[in-house]
Design goal:
Layout (H helix, E strand, L loop, with lengths): L2 E7 L10 E7 L2 H15 L5 H12 L2 E4 L7 E7 L1
Antiparallel strand pairs: 1-2, 1-3, 2-4
Helix pairs in contact: 1-2
Length: 81
């Protein structure tokens, strides 16, 4: 089963002044974390290694919604201010 994760996460300036919101489809917390980290590397957002620990906590505590359809895992949307 796959889930939609709504992850509220801080991103450091200049990429964000207040934070970010990630919408990710994943099978579990580990896959969600890995997908955000991969997206970060592809988009050159540079979450910075010190924020990955915080990110894992945010993923574990994220709101999740079970999906009725089997869709491809991935970052659906990343909104940063």
């Amino acid at each position: 089963m796959k889930y939609l994760y709504i992850v509220d996460h801080f991103l450091n300036f200049p990429h964000s002044e207040y934070g970010g919101l990630w919408n990710v489809i994943a099978e579990n917390d580990d896959e969600c974390f890995d997908l955000i980290k991969e997206y970060d590397e592809e988009q050159h957002i540079s979450l910075n290694e010190k924020f990955y620990v915080n990110l894992r906590d945010k993923v574990v505590n994220a709101r999740t919604f079970a999906l009725a359809e089997d869709v491809e895992s991935g970052v659906v949307e990343a909104f940063t201010t």
